[in-house]
Amino acid sequence: MSFQSAIDSLKSSGKRALVIGLGISGIESSKFLVRHGLKVLLVEKQPEAAFMSKSKFAPFAAELREIGVDLRFGVDGEAAAPLLSDVGLAILSPGVPLESAVVGTITRLKVPYVSELELGIELHGGKSIVVTGSNGKSTTVSLIDHIMRVAGVKSYLCGNVGTPVISSSELGSETASNRSVLVVEASSYQLEACTVLKPAVSVILNLSENHLERHGSMERYGAAKARCLRLQDSSDTAVLNADDSAVMGMARSTRASLSLFGRKPLEELLKNARNAASIDESGSTGPVVRASIDGAVEVYPTSRSALLGAHNRANVAAAVLAVRAMGVTPAAIQEAIDTFAPLEHRLEVVSRDGGRIIINDSKSTTVAASLAAFSTIRGHFPEHKLVLMLGGLSKAGSWEPLLKAVVAEKKAIEPVVCFGKDGPLLAGHCRASGVPCVVAPTLRAGTMAALEALQAVERGIVLLTPGCASFDEFTDFEHRGAQFKSYVAGARPVPLSA
Asked: Which CATH number covers residue 389?
């Protein structure tokens, strides 16, 4: 049974839909279901007092109750069972693991469930481009959306980038003859519950250690990412990173037409793909992306792009292959590459005063992302000293790749500022590697320490690229980045420990 059929069955039977999790996905799912005449039960495992005092979504509780949602707090696991007698379908928010107690309960009671992302894509009924990977997703989907708009193609940017798929006004509309192309950022959390997902274009950018505290192993994490490939066929396109062996291992599991991107020459990439895009750093006028589309070679200069770093040129190459699969012209792609503005909190220049630069890269919540940021900044500013800011809530995985790169550039480090809950842990790693560091209890203290160190050099950069989750102090990486910028603008020094 399709999920559209499940929705229709709920309408005819009078049964309720269960929404699990009072985050943005749960809120938008509930609103959608109510708009379409369905009765909705929403359960949130946090007690009401704790949720209302801590969550940025607290104001939505009253709004949902006003539109008729039966909202229950402090419900998890078997506590949900008495509420499920008249529930015909459950919608999972991304923060709800398949191994969670509440999913165990609905599975035992044979209540079918679907992820909000997959439900939205299926109910939309149009074409979708689904982008996943450990790093670069938001930049790539935003660039794809920008290209589509420059080309005059209707697109809807959604998913993990901030707007749930199910928010689209086209969902459930029988009169939408000219539907938008969904440009979807998909996290492993969103993909792991997908069973019928079949995007017109899937993109897997890379795979590195991330979210192991939820998935348990790289194998399970990779399997969640690969679900966007599982049901694709030869009419669809899979855009994969040829430089990433873990991603290329997924190529064997798809029947989609392959498009590969990477640093290898086009001729080598095309041995295993129909189309390809090669990143050439040695162009006479600067780096270019060379693409071979159905045998014809296209060249896309990136010298005018505001996106810094080789990792971003890989994102450009992936975007080129994705939109060419949708029929977008090379001229529109080049115009969009030249005019795309980088996203906030991603190598964002906060301040530039003479030879001193302050950069906000709060989005880097993994070691791999921080390594890419570190390498980019060192490559673009080799003469500058670097005050590196790492910290927050450390994830499972090794810090060795980043520390190895920092050790190689140790003469340029002034110093590493280790902040937040796991700042002492990171400082221990730094000291063991012989890297100078200081410890600060909070981001604010760390920012003051970094600014003080910056004033001691004539040409220097403060780079906030935490490599950690933000939840020790903040609601998300955007909150952390915004606070960092406010501290830079006007905070006063506070004590720190050496």
From this structure: 3.90.190.20
* β-strand pairing of 257-262 with 275-280: parallel
Amino acid at site 27: I
Nearest to 277 by CA among 315, 305, 303: 315
- Residue 42 near residue 72 (C-beta atoms within 8 A): yes
Considering the domain architecture, whether residues 50 and 141 belong to the same structural domain is answered as: no
Of the candidates 486, 260, 489, 218, the one whose C-alpha atom is nearest the C-alpha of residue 368 is 218
Q: What radius of gyration do the chain's Cα atoms show?
A: 23
Terminal Cα distance for the chain, rounded: 61
Encode pLDDT of 262-321 as tens digits.
Answer: 999 999 999 999 999 999 987 667 899 999 999 999 999 999 998 888 889 999 999 999
How much is the average pLDDT of 355-380? 92
Question: What single-letter amino acid sits at 285?
Answer: T
In a domain, 93, yes or no: yes
In the chain, what percentage of residues exceed pLDDT 70? 95
**Residue type (1 letter), 14:** G
Which pair of tokens denotes residue 325?
Answer: 């699969």
Q: Which of 80, 96, 111 is the last residue of a domain?
A: 111
Q: Is the pTM of this model over 0.70?
A: yes
